[in-house]
User: Fold this.
Amino acid sequence: MDIWMRFMSGDGGIVFGRVEGGYLHEYASLDQRVPTGEVLSTRALTPLAPCAPGKIVALWNNYHALAAKLDKPVPAHPLFLLKSAGSVIGDGATIRRPASYAGKIVYEGELGIVIGRRCRDADLAEAAASIFGYTIVNDITAADLLNENPHFPQWCRAKGFDTFCGLGPAIVSGFDWQAGRVVTTLDGVERQNYPLADMVFSPAQQVSLISQDLTLEPGDVIACGTSLGVGSIKDGATVAVTIAGIGTLSNTLAARQDTGDATAAARAAANAA
Amino acid sequence: MDIWMRFMSGDGGIVFGRVEGGYLHEYASLDQRVPTGEVLSTRALTPLAPCAPGKIVALWNNYHALAAKLDKPVPAHPLFLLKSAGSVIGDGATIRRPASYAGKIVYEGELGIVIGRRCRDADLAEAAASIFGYTIVNDITAADLLNENPHFPQWCRAKGFDTFCGLGPAIVSGFDWQAGRVVTTLDGVERQNYPLADMVFSPAQQVSLISQDLTLEPGDVIACGTSLGVGSIKDGATVAVTIAGIGTLSNTLAARQDTGDATAAARAAANAA
Assistant:
């Protein structure tokens, strides 16, 4: 198992590499895994999300326990939406409530698959070989928007807001997902604790089947879906998602900011024009 | 009105700039609009999609005539999905049928808004100023997948396949959209001919309202939705979408390829594993 992280350095540059014993061994990039020879103390660096995905494929209904609870049949193909790349934040970053939205904001602790090389129409073996490693995702949703319009479910909008995709803290290559569990706490109280082995589509199956829909690129992330225990986050509360062997992804929903008036005015003007 | 295009040059490099009288006046990029001083004959260049969007926001139900035909109320906020960035093809490129999909493939001729600068929580004036120009979109859909699963409408999958977003041929800045019409032909027969003035949300309203959901970045594209006359494309047929003042975007759906068996086998293996 290797631990891969991305940081901002003191001069504002971005560095990526393998972390061992408090030091970053820099590599050229996620898909060009060539050491640059630079070794930096991680204490001088600011952690970022461990990759900058071009796309984030987020699965719905991928755990048997949740499918049973929702009384939905297990799907025959991964059911997914795309989260906007701009929604990504790293460990420790703040989730921002959209200025125009006062409703329920929901966490979902998930396993994230990080793609290591271009992958299209891949069979299972090629799909497995295309997985660079695993990370943790907090797939955040403005839940009241999802079915706000009865004629069009707004999955991409509800899950696509800036800061609505926690990602990190690290990518772990060689992680044995089959023995793993996702444990989510809200202000320290356990809310989710489910086994990854309960997945409907395994990571390699997801990559294989999704690669028949979309070409997957290095750094792309598949959020494997969540299971039981999803719930809402109050303003100011902290969600921590832990997968032993990967780490803990912790993000706090900012206390309500007083920016609602300006945005509401912009929105009203746009609607009226 | 200026015409902006992107090309592949003889050495495989990508050049972007303003086209006038058969010559490309190269610019640094879409958001850094600084001339490089290079002037190239477009005859030596291979046209590409005029930008490489990080995200493509595609609207549903944004024309009064279509809303009336579908008997749906006009929405209060733009209803959108995200098309994958990898779905983009330029004028003249071939639409490929997914190997695993034998169903109906549908064209939608649309106006495309190209963002010129980062835009978040923008009021109408800022939104209007953030529009770099306009292009043409053919928003292609594997229609039978949309409601294949009764529990989850697969918008992102059905519209996200590689080659399912025709974009081009040019971006025109200063284009007067209010007088424009979208004319779509299928193998030369007119199928769509609708006025842009029938839009529910104007381009500036779309940019303003969507910027309150997602930060829009330079090169991002908003596909404004389509109106009456959507239909299916037979294998081998050519769809041409024309907006006078922008140009014609023409793409052919490839004749059926004999690659179905290998992919079907990969799919079956992935499902069975």
Observations:
- Confidence is low (pLDDT under 50) at residues 258-262 of chain B.
- Residues 260-272 of chain B form the longest helix (13 residues).
